[in-house]
Amino acid sequence: MRPTPHPPRHTPEAPRDLVGIGIGPFNLSLAALTHPLDELDAVFYEQRPGFDWHPGLLIDGARIQVPFLADLVTLADPASPWTFLNYLKARDRLFPFYFSERFHIQRAEYDAYCRWVSDNLPGLHFGHQVDAVRWNAEHDLFEVVYTRLGSDGAAEALGRAHTRNVVLGVGTEPHVPDPLRPLVDAPGVPVVHAADYLDHRDAFLAADHITVVGSGQSGAEVFLDLLRHRPVGRERIHWIGRTEAFAPMEYSKLGLEHFTPDYTRYFHALDEPVRDRLLASQWRLHKGIDADTIAAIHDELYRRTLHGGWPDAVLTPGVRVRTAGRIAAAKIELHVEHIQQGTRTRLTTDAVVLATGHRERPLIPLLAGLDPYLRRDSSERPRVDEQFRLVLDPVITATGCNVYVQNAELHTHGVGAPDLGLAAWRSATIVNSLTGQQSYPLPARTAFTTFGLHRQTHLPAARETVTLTPLVDQR
Fold it and tell me: Would you call 303 helix, strand, or coil by DSSP?
């Protein structure tokens, strides 16, 4: 059974309550939670022609690293019609899923679920490229200027929307380290970011020698997929990464409490220098490799030793690429350095997959019209308050208008910012801020761990003092 959409609530002369920019999982979550609220008139714009979630990494068998309960809405509203379980019911797949006993679903299935939501949820406008966000001081409203695109991506018409609030969910973009940029920019060189891996997979499998750069989850998945499809004894794959080990992601139950609202509130309350130091040290919380993927890689390598010999695969962590270039037109040369040994060498290869991660898309180009009103931290990053609002000049905030961000607040809210498991909670927090009431009641406590000496609660001004039992002095 599909959810029944509401009739249109917007009139041309009235400003919107909310305009969302970008339709990835996070803004799709917000759209799903605003859907049943008649008091909110929300619309969302996306440049792409349809929902598209990391298509180049939808490798067969690859799973998302959060349980299926971390869908778009369940952790804020498990009775919502937009849950993953309701998606399964609509597709007559509820019993097969039940018997599969899978807590972590495949990436392709999560993508299909999000597509189902985006196909049925009203208020989503694909093929709309947002060009600018400005403050209209005369009307005390934001102006969102956009271009409507045709099926071929060409501009068809210009448009403008006025709104009291804006939410930015423009997502991330593939990151290419500076030493490797010349390879990506050079025509005809078989070097692609992992985000585009599946589009070039056949070419990589045909290459004589392949190098995967990057020791995180995407690097591991690409290496495993290539390994499984290369001849035994003639694998000819190098896998290198900067981290000191091909390390598993922190997945202990108490470790996972870093991805709770409790930790997010604690992190936000820390001083800026402390937050920056913490983020640099927490890479294994969100940049390690899933233990099942590590096990699958080892199993595949071991299988290839059963008849004697070792697979022609080299796995070397703790390596950074210093420079890179082409040899003639068919070869690539990587100048690499082992960080701990201080030794250097050259690696010649025929193709390179850059599993070098993603970075937040810069907000400043889109918000150039709001530049005079933005408040920044000591590193010139936008300041974001506890309710995920950009800190703006009081001339704007005094009107009750705000700009919210999704997955652009890593520096202020910590490792949970890009995590799918906090999507519904963050969206519900934004909805409650928009409505000025608990449209979605949220728990005051979500972790057994007490982060700091004062527990941060869901009310920005409220704190719960934790009584500590003094330790006995045993000196």
Answer: helix
